[in-house]
Amino acid sequence: MTVLVPVLGDQLSHGLASLKGCDPADTVVLMMEVAEEAAHVRHHKAKIALIFSAMRHFAAELRKAGWRVDYIRLDDPENAGSFTGEVIRAAERHSPRLIRVVEPGDWRVEQAMLDWQTFIGCPVEILPDSRFLCSRDEFASWAAGRKELRMEFFYREMRRRTGLLMDGKDPVGGKWNYDAANRSGPPTGLKGPPLPRFAPDAMTNEVIELVGTRFADHFGALDKFSWPVTAQEAETAAAAFLKDRLPTFGQWQDAMVRGQDFLFHAVLSPAINLGLLDPLDLCRRAEAEYRAGRAPLAAVEGFVRQLIGWREYIRGVYWLEMPGLAEDNYLGATRPLPDFYWTGKTDMACLADCVRTTRDNAYAHHIQRLMVLGNFALLAGIRPQDVADWFLVVYADAFDWVELPNVAGMALFADGGRLASKPYAASGAYIDRMSNYCGSCRYKVKLKTGPDACPFNALYWHFLDRNEDKLGRNMRLANPYATWRRMSEEKRTEYLASAEAFLQQLQNADAGWARHGQ
Ligand code: FAD
Asked: Residue 510 — pLDDT band, cuts 50, 70, 90?
């Protein structure tokens, strides 16, 4: 009797825990393209194409390596449409003695998985995902008894555990964190090196055609599709990053330049999240670049921190806080998502450009997500569940475990500060300092109020004012609140009226639109 090993779409790693120790002669690997996953939110077309193409390539590699793969395509007439339905059907075909699966990255899928044993009547072994450095149990132990979870302390433990950028017990260079060196605004003409592009092969083209037909009304473009879909292609992308962009990764990490969609970012998150790249290996290779004198410490430390710090921390928080995190709304935000998040039709140049790169590439870099798209949603008081759904739909790297804590916790403070010590709220001045957006915007960033002023300016004070009961005692907001309280009554009224007028205008504009996407 065989072992049935379901491999999910973001588990495309040859070293996957469920495959380890299995005898290919006695194992059936089950891979499933199911409508429930492709359409439970209306994912960006390029994201669906990426996942299905990477799955089909991975199945071909497994077969070549001697595994028996039972692959269910989306257009198989018998397709049951859900993981559970397909696992039941596969159990009928193969009569397994055991189902062995790695824990999923989505709480909803895990809930379904926990019922498999009852439905199918054979033992189901759910294994920890060993592709993460810190297991869910280890993170829960680290978090237990702490009043506040802070990434920085968790990150230091991960540095010690891995030995990355360590000199014995001390951090290389004497400091744990070089973030302060990584905040330069962009000089005129800043351009990143060209990104390696991967032309779709016949298998990818077949998937692109399927997605173009079946999900024609979903958000996003397919014509620029060039994501790496195999481990080999992802390795080419990683090698190019380490050579061409890592040395300047840190310095321009927070910079935004209109039309420059990737700058010096890794653009590796989809491949990492699918399992095509090993994040620890990437960190070791980044460290080797520093040790060889080819990349500065601040850049390499910044990159390592994103992967063994933020990425692992975010995942730990997700499993600690679910399912409540999905419903959190600490600031009581209720406004629906403005239509321009789908259409890009807004006079705010920063938001228009961030939506454009999102639509074209299924990608926007971190500061565009956090300080433009997220910041606007925070300041305007958009309902966290609307925002989270949007972020899950639009990015090629968006899986629930990583998207939700970033949106609800980091961008929107919907968890009341368990993840971040203060909201990432900023006025137009920040966007102006870190980008070249404002020069070409019809709104004037230097104007504080009125119909021509950058809307971020008045919205910033409106946000602080309307949330004073919840945020007014936050020590990290002491300065802005002191400034707000020092302002004349007249000035404050002007700010609030200006923000109200903008929000009303937004609401009126949206009332006339047919909803897109969601
Ligand atoms: P780089 O900037 O080059 O960073 C290198 C790597 O570090 C990334 O590939 C990623 O694996 C990791 N990383 C960096 N920051 C984070 C973080 N905060 N959380 C987790 N990993 C991180 N990342 C996702 O992978 N999926 C998401 O759905 C996602 N949604 C986000 C939503 C919001 C509102 C915000 C603020 C951030 C989100 N992030 C998400 C984190 C981050 O923006 C992306 O990982 C990053 O932009 C991916 O591009 P890159 O590979 O060029 O990253």
From this structure: confident
What is the 472 CA–ligand 1 centroid distance (Å)? 30
Q: What is the DSSP letter of 337?
A: P
What is the β-pairing status of strands 98-102 and 68-72? unpaired
199 alpha carbon – ligand 1 mean position (Å): 24
Contacts for 163 with CB less than 8 Å, ≥ 6 apart: none
Give the dihedral of Cα atoms 352, 356, 362, 366; nearest 10 deg: -40
> Which class is 3-127 in CATH?
alpha beta
**196 upstream amide cis, omega within 30 of 0:** no
Task: Report the topology of domain 340-511.
Answer: DNA Cyclobutane Dipyrimidine Photolyase, subunit A; domain 3 (1.10.579)
Mean pLDDT score of the chain: 95
Domain borders along the chain are 3-127, 136-197+229-321, 340-511
- The CATH-assigned architecture of domain 136-197+229-321 is Alpha Horseshoe (1.25)
Tokens 């433990």 identify what position? Answer: 157
Measure the CA–CA gap between 99 and 370, rounded to whole angstroms: 40
- Choose between 197 and 147: higher pLDDT: 197
Q: What is the structure's pLDDT at 513?
A: 53
Contact residues for 301 (Cβ-Cβ < 8 A; gap 6+): 165, 172, 173, 177, 178, 250
316 CA → ligand 1 middle, Å = 15
Which residue puts its alpha carbon closest to atom 46 of ligand 1?
366
Among protein residues, the one with the nearest Cα to ligand 1's atom 14 is 306
* Pocket probe mutation, ligand 1, options 179, 272, 273, 306, max atoms within 8 Å of Cβ: 306
User: CA 349 → CA 168, 431, 443, 500, 502, distances in Å?
Assistant: 48, 11, 8, 21, 16
Point out the ligand 1 atom lying closest to the alpha carbon of residue 264.
Answer: 3
How remote is the CA of residue 245 from the centroid of ligand 1, in Å?
16
- Check residue 357 and give its pLDDT: 97
What is the spatial distance between Cα 82 and Cα 96, in angstroms, rounded to a whole number? 19
Residues 285-340: tens digit of each pLDDT: 999 999 999 999 999 999 999 999 999 999 999 999 999 999 999 999 999 999 99
| Tokens linked to 273 | 């999240």
Give dist(CA 334, CA 16) in Å, integer. 41
Token representation of residue 328 = 């959190």
CB atoms within 10 A of CB 425: 21
Distance CA 23, CA 139 (A): 32
* pLDDT tens sequence across 132-190: 999 999 999 999 988 889 999 999 999 999 999 999 999 999 999 998 877 889 999 99
